[in-house]
Amino acid sequence: MDQKNGSSFTGFILLGFSDRPQLERVLFVVLLIFYLLTLLGNTTIIALSRLDPHLQTPMYFFLSNLSFLHLCYTTSTVPQLLVHLRGADKSISFAVCVAQLFVYLGLGGTECILLGVMAFDHYAAVCRPLHYTVIMHPRLCALLASASWFIGFVNSSLQTVLIFLVPLCGRNKIEHFICEVTPLLKLACVDTTVNESELFSVRVIIVLIPMALITFSYGQIVRAMLRIKLVLGQRKAFGTCESHFTVVSLFYGTGIYIYLQPSNNYSQDQGKFISLFYTIVTRKVNPFIYTLRNKDVTGAMRKVLCRGYDSR
């Protein structure tokens, strides 16, 4: 990356919502509440999956991975955003910006793949119930989860390198509240068409392959629903499928809008608010989607609470 007139490059200015000071005060309160609820909800799912033996299954193993991912995702962006919303200093160092983009993209890619893996798990539970424990062996579950994280961060490494190879010629004001791909590329002082094409190709691969797996899995699940009378275990799995499909729709709907539209159609204001929804709201509602509609999780929560009350 080029530096300004050969001088040391210290970092960036995240403009965020600084042109709307009244909105910043409201956003601070709203985001703080959402962040605390996100921490509470996802931590609860992870704890319940560890404490209740009935939840120590492949389905809840992957759900715990997803909850941990959401904890990391929001923590990589929200605390810094809250600090910027409350203070006049909107700066972020170069190293922190690179790290934030790397983690943000890595977790986003991991979530794409993990949602595909979870869809396959639901397919096995509904369509192959007699072979489910053989198909979804603990070693395979660990391998699939590890592969999701590995591929997500390999993809992130590639995208981060492609972005920060672009010369900025001293431009450092990012029209966003985080170090995001499109606003960073808009700082470039050279033509970024090739970089954008390369980044677009990488994103398409990381999005479309899991989407193909999700489409196949849910297609088979719907066929099974139409063809057979479900037994109890399959009905439970199908109930979780509905929650998972809601989460997939929220995640992919906002993600495709942000990352798979042409840069010339990108609206800075819309991009900020969609990114805010993508970063905060989807990660906050997921625990409630999975817990409020899942009798196993609500039952485990009651048992843990009753156990804690009885021990007093």
Structure description:
The protein is mainly α and 312 residues long. It has eleven helices and three strands, in the order E-H-H-H-E-H-H-H-E-H-H-H-H-H. A three-stranded mixed sheet has the order 2-1-3. The longest helix has 35 residues, at 193-227. The chain is globular and about 60 Å long. 36% of the residues are buried. Residues 1-8 have low confidence and may be disordered.
Task: Provide keyphrases for this structure.
312 residues; mainly alpha; three-stranded mixed sheet; 74% helix; 3% strand; globular
List the helices and strands and how they pair.
Blueprint: E1 11-14, H1 21-51, H2 58-75, H3 78-86, E2 91-93, H4 94-127, H5 132-135, H6 138-164, E3 173-174, H7 181-185, H8 193-227, H9 232-259, H10 268-292, H11 295-310
Parallel strand pairs: 1-3
Antiparallel strand pairs: 1-2
- CA(first)-CA(last) distance: 60 Å
Low-confidence stretches: 1-8
Across the major sheet, the strand order is 2-1-3
Series of H and E elements = EHHHEHHHEHHHHH
Which percent band covers the strand fraction?
Answer: under 5%
Helix content: over 70%
Biggest sheet features: 3 strands, mixed
**pLDDT averaged over residues:** 81
Tell me the Rg in angstroms: 21 Å
The number of helical segments is: 11
Protein structure class: mainly alpha
What is the molecular shape?
globular
